[in-house]
Amino acid sequence: MNQLNITKPIISKRATHPNFEHRHAAHCETGVVSSLLRHYGLDISEPMTFGISAAMFFTHLPFVKIEGFPLTAYRQIPGAVIKTIQKNLGVKFKLERFRQPQAGTAALNQHIGDNHIVGLQASVFWLPYFPPDMRFHFNAHNLIVYGKEGDDYNISDPVAEFTVTCPEKDLQKARFVKGVFAPKGLIYYPTYLPDEIDLTQAITKSIRTVTKRMLKTPVPFFGIRAIRHVANKLSRLDRQDVDPRYAKLFIGMIVRMQEEIGTGGGGFRFMYASFLQESAQLLHNDQLFEASELMTTAGDTWREFALLGAKFCKKKTDINLSQLASAMHQCADTEEKAFHFLDKIKFR
Amino acid sequence: MYKDEVPQDKNPILAGERKAMYAKDESGNYVVVPSNGWEVEETVTSLALEEYQLKREQAYDRACKGMTSPLEYHMYANRLNIATLSQSTGIFQWRIKRHLRPKIFKGLDTKLLTRYADAMGISLEQLAHLPENK
After folding, report:
1. How far apart, in whole angstroms, are the C-alpha atoms of residue A83 and residue A93?
2. pLDDT(A20) > 90
3. How much is the pTM?
4. Contact flag B121-A273 (C-beta cutoff 8 Å)
5. Average pLDDT of the residues in B43-48
6. CA dihedral A57, A62, A64, A65 (to 10 degrees)
7. Phi and psi torsions of B91, nearest 5°
8. Class for domain B48-128, per CATH?
9. What local confidence, expressed as pLDDT, does residue A122 receive?
């Protein structure tokens, strides 16, 4: 049985903040969850967290509009990482939500007073330490608070290279915005780690979940089918009745979801390849190495699509929509190959 | 993607920050590589920012002519649109659209205006007027 390093006891002796180590991560939710688990005694990397929580995905929902464009995402919805990691690893997180902003701030201060290190959900727009041009109304950002000095919280934002600070007033505002994915002051932290973790089972289970979702969803909203669906949509964007500006912004939106928001590049495909590589080493499974290579190719193909997409948005070169569509079909092909291979791997 | 292929295009939008990327090192093992940005990201983020700026400027011009209320200008200036403003204030979209009419906007009570001002993080005074510059 493969085991992760667990140092016990973890809950009764919560470490104080001088022991907290900030680690630079690609994605906010996986970054926070892996950092919290590591801090409380379960040493787990970001890609491993991403893989085991089966967060790898592709979804295109025409009826959910983000800034007026259909939602296109390369991962599971926010909150899925915390939910699934509990199921697949047997760890437990406590999630606290609040109605009153003051109550939320009081609870956070209480945690800090007790030297607890906690994860929070907040809106990017209201966090003053974010670069101004990166501040959009995205409510499901995650960060860790590990201390407070005077009026400023010490924050470990996984997507930032170094730790940052944020005034109490601003953080309260960011934690209690309304709208889609409203954080409601969410505070979360692990409360239980199992004595033993069967990693083979956790990895197998999560890979099965992902391959099933990617390959076998019968509707064109999820998985490979969704990629092809979007590709076909792209090729139809040059019709007379479509505003050329809409086409540009739509493609820009897809590329932003793939590259701009922290994905580790290639719409999480490189992070997933990293997970497969780590799993291959842990389980001594050469086929997983091969799957990792295929997933890397998928990531590279997505990067090429992003490059073409950006060129199209700039209108400097004559990239047409059918070229973009075929680049995306290419992504679907490479990815389908990778997932078919993963699906056939025998683990035991 | 290999470590040396990770773009370092000094994306000004990141304002000197670096983001973590996953790439392979010389021996083929995945590692985290900090990147100061990719031109592609810069293009698509600027595109989204430009869109808000364009709408903001148009709203400014129309508000000067009395064709819309300052609410529309502030909405776009704070990177919101009618759908997202509705979500973050809890005010129905049709009501927001109504409040974009200057006459109706002038008659709004403080309670409603405070909801708008809070969602945008500006004062009531700011909300009621256009700034001097676009």
Report:
1. 9
2. no
3. 0.92
4. no
5. 92
6. 110
7. -95, 135
8. mainly alpha
9. 96
Q: What pLDDT sits at residue A12?
A: 31
Q: Check if B25 contacts A (Cβ < 8 Å).
A: no
Mapped onto helix, strand or coil, the DSSP state of residue A252 is helix
Torsion of CA A311, A316, A320, A326, to 10 degrees: -20
Please state the domain extents for chain B.
Answer: 3-37, 48-128
Give A312: exposed, middle or buried? Use CB within 10 Å, 0-12, 13-18, 19+. buried
The rounded Cα A54 to chain-centroid distance in angstroms is: 10
Residues of B in contact with A24 (CB under 8 A): 18, 20, 32, 34
Rounded CA-CA distance A340/A211 in Å is 8
Q: How far apart are CA A205 and CA B16, in angstroms?
A: 40
| CA-based nearest residue to A14, from A43, A40, A49 | A40
Q: What is the 3-state secondary structure (H, E, C) of B32-67?
A: EEEECECHHHHHHHHHHHHHHHHHHHHHHHHHHCCC
Alpha carbon of A25: minimum distance to chain B alpha carbons (Å): 6
Instruction: Please give the pLDDT value at position A90.
Output: 92
Report the Cα–Cα distance between both ends of chain A, in Å, rounded. 11
Residue with tokens 């990147």: B35
Give the pLDDT mean for A243-247.
86
Measure the CA angle with vertex B112, ends B129 and B110; round to 5°.
65
The band of A4, judged by pLDDT with boundaries at 50, 70 and 90, is: low
Distance of CA A106 to the CA centre of its chain: 29
Report the run of H or E that residue A310 belongs to, with start and end: helix A286-314
Q: What is the DSSP letter of A144?
A: E
SS percent in chain A: helix, strand, coil, step 5? 50, 15, 35
The pairing of strands B30-35 and B19-24 is antiparallel
CB contact under 8 A, A303 and B1: yes
